[in-house]
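tool_call: predict_structure(chain=1)
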Amino acid sequence: MNASSRPASDSSASAPRYGMPLLTALFFGWGLITSLNDVLIPHLKAVFSLNYVQAMLVQFCFFGAYFLVSLPAGQVVRRWGYQRGMVMGLVIAAIGCALFYPAATFQTYGWFLGALFVLASGVTLLQVAANPYVTLLGPEQEASRRLTWTQAFNSLGTTVGPLFGASLILAAADSVAAEATAVRGPYLGLAAALLVIAGVLMVVKLPKVGDTQDARAAASTPPAWRHRHLLLGVLAIFVYVGAEVSIGSFLVSVMSAPDVASLSGSDAGHMLALYWGGAMVGRFIGAWLMKRMSAARLMTGCAVGAVVLLTVAMLAGGHLTMWALLAIGLCNAIMFPTIFSLALERLGPRTEQGSGLLCMAIVGGALVPLVQGALADSHGLLPSFVVPLVCYVYIAYYAARGHRVVPVATTTPAAAAVRT
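tool_result:
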């Protein structure tokens, strides 16, 4: 990226002190919220007697928001800046959490899905603002490592989320009515926490990076979608999020199955924390390894490892299937931040636009679980894991070859005028 995309040299003295801790708090928060879906799915499946496809509407509504909201969120960030965009995202997410109270009171599945959509809209705005902000907040060659570090705290949130949900939601229900209302307290608590973080973020001055309103600079560069490595990265984010979410969504059901581990719902929910915890540990390890080897090479090895583990899980059965699926969390560790930073490489003033496209691709978390759910209903639970297996094969390709930057000819306003 060009020099104008780097942090401004006149940032306040307080900015470096508070910037990264606040960002890591944001990453932690939306990680916890996202992984709670994996507890909500078996919970709501039992409450409303849903099949797998119907239960996966939880992920469809949550991650579908990324597709619908990402481009408008990019416009918000471009107009109001990264910091205000993050504050707005936190407030919207808090409103979504608060909507779980009427959803549980009315005991209506549609209300839950609507609340999840509002919540996810706020998280989408957070991601569109925070992910590129981290990549720009320092030297370009360390962008993958920096984003991997903050994503490690996101994984800490996804590790805590299932433990939080299993203890306060799955273990709290002893009747249909109790199950429906078990979500009210936890989500109201989350709403309050998000509003506190938003209040702190409003008063702390963060470093200014780039110029989100430099329309003249953006007009002289090709649109983001003309960059091949970005488009391939969009597909990589789609299949990665789809695979990660799909595996997490089905893990409680797999671990509860008699031919795998026969765990209770609460015990399976606690075991699920190992899946997300593997990603957390792997991201700290990955941030260290990226000092010694390229991020792309490390991601290639992780993708191949995920393919091997999924193959073992589908063929083995019993406890080996459970442990193989849980171990995929470790392979997932560096994938999202590495794909994200590689795809945004050399986009310059089109970085916000590229970030919006990448966040739209998170809709993979809505669609891939539905595909696997349909396959699980028709062919069985373990055979359905062929869906995430195919996803990891593509990620291995992107890490090995697809991420390479291919130069794009710059079209200036004058040149465009000559052609017309």
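agent: Residues 1-16, 173-177, 412-420 have pLDDT under 50 and may be disordered. Proceeding to next step.
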